[in-house]
Each structure stands twice: as C-alpha cells, then as structure tokens.
From TrEMBL:
Binding site for substrate: S8, H66, G142, F143, G144, G145, D175, G176, G177
HAMAP family linked: RPE
Lineage of producing organism: Bacteria, Pseudomonadati, Bacteroidota, Sphingobacteriia, Sphingobacteriales
Name of the protein in question: Ribulose-phosphate 3-epimerase
Reactions catalysed according to its record: D-ribulose 5-phosphate = D-xylulose 5-phosphate
Amino acid sequence: MKHLISPSLLSADFANLKEDIDMVNRSNADWFHIDIMDGVFVPNISFGFPVLTAISRYAKKPLDVHLMIVEPDRYLQQFKDCGAHTITVHYEACTHLHRTIQAIKDVGCKAGVALNPHTPVAFLSEVIGDLDLVLIMSVNPGFGGQKFIENTYEKIRQLIAMASAKNESLLIEVDGGINLGNASDLLKAGADVLVAGNAIFAAKNPEAVIDELKNIAVSNIRI
Ligand code: DX5
Ligand code: ZN
C-alpha cells in the first residue's frame, strides 16, 4: 500500500470551509485530519460537534479524528455519530488507556493513540497489539504551523521495531510541521500517514502540494 496523506482542516479557511472540503475531495488526499482541541489538554480551542457534523456532510473521505482533549471516553459515541472513521486519543490524556482503546473499538471506529514529543514510544508496549494506528506528534500539540521536531525520526524507528514484533498492520502517522522538505525523509524512516495543515492550506495551489506529497516515491515503504 502507498503512503496516505491526511490534510489537517485546522489550517483551512473556516469562512469557506466547504470550498476547502471540496478541494480535499477532488485531490489525491486519502483522509481528512480533524483536530479537536479543548483548551485544557492543549492551550487552544478548535471546534466541536456542530462543525464536525457539517464537515461530515460533505467530506467524501474518511475522517481521521485527533482528540486533543481530556476525558475522551465521554465523547466517543458522539464522535462516531458525527462520522469519525478513526479516533485517536492522547496517551497523556488517558489514565485507563487500555479501556479507552477498547471503547473506541466498541463504538465501531479504528483506534489510534497519539504520543507527545516527550512521551517514549516504549510506553505503548502493552497496548500496541490492540491498536490500528499510532500518531507520533512532531510538534507540541495545540497549533498549526509549528517547527518540526527532528527527534521524530528516531521515534518512528523505535515504533517500527516494536510494531514488527507485535503488530504488523499498525499504521504510523506523523503530525506537525510536515512539508515538502521533510516528507520524503519521514516516509523513508517508515511513516505510513502524513498529516499536513499549513504546508497545504497556506500554499497557492493546495491541490498541487497534496499531489506532490502523495507522489513521493519511496522504495522501502513497509506496507
Ligand atoms: C497540531 C495538530 C496538527 C496541526 C498540523 O496540534 O494536531 O494536526 O494541524 O498542522 P501543521 O501541518 O501546520 O503543523
Ligand atoms: Zn492533528
């Protein structure tokens, strides 16, 4: 399977959201990346259920929902009802992570866990077999347009080593500061899904950037 591109609507034009949704529908992107921020887990508030419901009315590709919120268990069914395909929760926000992962599956979604830049990959060793996706944050979560953290490559390598022993179908997603300058190295390191916000929506021709990201040729893709 070729790598996947998940444009982050956080950087879209909210006054013309449908135009940006249509652009992603037309493009070679694979998913819509949906960043939900609660102002508690991260120092920013993005948008909630009414906006997500509106997005899902027009989006023709799976909704990749990244929850940067505390107590995500309270809202899993609602995110599913709003059209979520994959729900990714933060390791740092889940006291009972194993239970939360099962609850995501119980509502009928693919289950992902995100790791902040300071959180070791090894902390997932006991649940990695239960996961569909791990999201490695390559910036501190909360804002689009931040600088990529270089240690991300090392974390991808560690995650691949862990996944090859325990979960061969695991998808590795990377999120934050991704652009045409580092995407190829991330894919070479083993990323399966690239999230990009600013690099796509701040570009003159967002569809062309998606195309370029999607068409990067990498010989050692694992999946
Ligand atoms: C950051 C979000 C990201 C963000 C990425 O907290 O999780 O998805 O939108 O945006 P860029 O690609 O601009 O770093
Ligand atoms: Zn995100």
